[in-house]
Design goal:
Elements (H helix, E strand, L loop, with lengths): L5 E11 L5 E12 L4 E5 L6 H9 L6 E6 L2 E2 L10 E4 L11 H11 L4 H14 L15 H13 L5 E5 L7 H18 L2 E6 L2 H7 L2 E6 L2 E6 L1 H6 L4 H6 L4 E11 L2 E6 L4 E5 L9 E6 L5 E3 L10 E10 L4 E7 L6 E5 L11 E5 L6 E2 L18
Parallel strand pairs: 3-8, 3-9, 6-7, 7-8
Antiparallel strand pairs: 1-2, 1-4, 4-5, 9-10, 11-12, 11-14, 12-13, 14-20, 15-19, 16-17, 16-19, 17-18
Length: 379
């Protein structure tokens, strides 16, 4: 692709298992990253995301395929010959060195003049909000500050591409959310392309320009966060990205662009029809918990109502999560009440409605769950 900073073509990597088998950590991956773009590799443990990141960095050799940066094949280049830097999950700081020396160590090894090193280290520390802390040791910093030191160390070499391997996973929830905002703002300010690895769906949705969802060494779907969330192509992506309700059934009719899907529980769900979908076909519709609305008894319904009884409620501050058992049986339906002050209690009868435009029919509704494969955490 002409406008790509990074282009991965048919990347393959396999590992031998202790039992003598073979695990395909990367099974012919194709991906591109544009200049200044923030792309997240997202998936369960063992899906291949870390293997792909390590291959880009040069820490993992491919069995086949190519990695191009600015159109140049770097597949055979050692890590120190690639204009990319990596921020690791563990930070990997030298405990006996000051913050400033940790940040400037790569420049020191490369033989950069002292004055240039001091200038660039100062600029990098200022960028990450650690100005004036250069003389401290890593042990004198908080977890968030150590994460910033690792980021400054990666940025001081002015890479074309920055790789980040779950760098926020060791932080507590509040600090992690704060660092997500800061990291995205810093990336926009610097104009450096980021490839970010995480298994946290909320993190991917909050930070990315595009999300690459991976499963078993392959790419399941790539797209902007809103597209991945609102229009998942497969059951795997729908179930992996956020909470969801799946309504499986048979199409009874397609009218005015809407497929009428009769489910085993007796409910009929309306959703925009895929091209070629016809009466008699099987289909699975997706409705997110926030798409469903609890209707007052006797209120007019825009769609055929989904009725059932409350099994339990979970109060989460801003939201009230309601688990509803459909009248005709089947899996429980999850609803996020818009009025978190409301409460119904177990056994209460509910009627649910929704906007059909918010529903989505899966292109691939093959049963399956986001399972970990044999490659393990290393992949």
């Amino acid at each position: 692709m002409a406008d790509a900073l990074l282009e991965i073509r048919g990347a393959r990597r396999s590992f031998a298992t202790p039992e003598g088998g073979l695990v395909h950590a990367l099974a012919g991956v194709d991906l591109h990253v544009a200049p200044r773009e923030f792309v997240t590799l997202l998936g369960p443990s063992g899906c291949g995301k870390t293997t792909l990141l390590r291959a880009i960095a040069g820490f993992e050799a491919l069995d086949g395929g190519a990695i191009l940066l600015d159109g140049q094949d770097i597949s055979g280049a050692p890590p120190h010959r690639r204009p990319v830097n990596t921020v690791f999950q563990s930070y990997a700081l030298f405990p006996h060195m000051s913050v400033a020396r940790n940040v400037g160590y790569a420049l020191e090894v490369a033989g950069a003049p002292r004055r240039e090193r001091e200038t660039r280290v100062g600029e990098a520390l200022d960028l990450v909000g650690l100005a004036g802390m250069g003389n401290r040791r890593p042990s004198q910093l908080s977890g968030g500050q150590r994460q910033r030191v690792a980021l400054a160390r990666a940025l001081v070499a002015r890479p074309r591409l920055l790789l980040l391997d779950e760098p926020l996973s060791a932080l507590d929830r509040r600090l992690r959310q704060q660092m997500q905002i800061e990291l995205k703002s810093l990336q926009s300010e610097l104009g450096v392309a980021f490839v970010f690895v995480t298994h946290d769906q909320d993190e991917a949705l909050a930070m990315s320009d595009r999300i690459c969802v991976m499963r078993a060494g392959e790419i399941a779907q790539v797209g902007p966060p809103r597209e991945i969330y609102r229009a998942p192509r497969s059951r795997f992506v729908a179930e992996f990205i956020g909470e969801t309700n799946l309504f499986e059934g048979r199409v009874t009719q397609v009218a005015d662009g809407l497929a009428h899907i009769a489910t085993a529980s007796g409910a009929t769900v309306l959703a925009p029809a895929l091209a070629g979908l016809a009466a008699g076909d099987t289909a699975t519709a997706v409705l997110r918990p926030s798409d469903l609305v609890v209707q007052a008894e006797g209120a007019p319904q825009a769609t055929p109502p989904i009725t059932g009884s409350v099994v339990k409620e979970v109060f989460l501050g801003a939201d009230l999560h309601i688990f509803v058992q459909p009248d005709g049986g089947g899996e429980q339906i999850r609803v996020v009440a818009r009025d978190a002050g409301a409460a119904w209690g177990a056994g209460a009868r509910l009627s649910l409605s929704y906007d059909p435009a918010r529903a989505h029919v899966l292109e691939d509704d093959t049963p399956g769950t986001p399972a970990r494969d044999a490659a393990g955490d290393a992949a």
